[in-house]
Amino acid sequence: MLKHLKAVTYSLFLWLAGSILIGVAACFVMDVVPHKHFSPPLAYAIWGVLGVFVGFFHFGFAQAQIKGKDGISDWDSPEEARTVGGQLVRLTAAWLAAMSVVFYPLFWSSQSSLEVLFLVVPDNMGVSLTYFVAILATTAFANNLFAPSKAKQGSDPR
User: Could you state, in order of their start, the residue ranges of all structural domains in the chain?
Assistant: First the structure.
């Protein structure tokens, strides 16, 4: 499991950094542009959708990093793909849980009046947890969706 730690960490933090910048920019524009339809659920929707995209991109990028340049890897057989994909999901869950533990005393334990006005990750606990759960759920879904099946291996169904 530790052999894939570098690939999963690199992929997760790369996509987190990029998507947080996009999410903060989107929330800033929605907050600054005068319109009557902005509400807190819109911020949750922005972060939820970003979490889904990050989950898929993270899984694909980490999978490509684990495969390596030669294309020969543990992803070729269904049993090994399930094992390595499960490790990828568990490492992602561990990183997201560790970030939640760090963010709680830094950002979430003190309720400030700014939290209501600017709902962004990692400042607001609600949108941060929505974002993290969407990432983890989508990564697990991608693991099941893109894992090779036994029907594809070896035999021709004709």
Answer: 2-31+39-151
pLDDT in tens, 12-60: 999 999 998 999 888 888 877 766 666 778 888 989 999 999 999 999 8
Q: How would you class 135 by CB atoms within 10 Å of its CB: exposed for 0-12, middle for 13-18, buried for 19 or more?
A: buried
pLDDT band for 138, please (50, 70, 90 cuts).
very high
Query: CA–CA distance from 127 to each of 23, 30, 81, 139 (Å)?
Result: 11, 15, 32, 18
- Cα 103 from Cα 123, distance rounded (Å): 8
Backbone angles phi, psi at 142, to 5 degrees: -65, -35
Percent of the chain with pLDDT over 70: 77
Residues written for the chain? 158
Phi, psi of 101 (to 5 degrees): -65, -40
Cα atoms in the Cβ-side hemisphere of radius 13 Å centred on 100: 16
Residues 6+ apart with CB under 8 A from 109: none
Phi, psi of 59 (to 5 degrees): -60, -45
Considering the entire predicted model, what is its pTM? 0.82
- Give the residue among 119, 105, 114, 109 at the shortest CA–CA distance from 40: 119
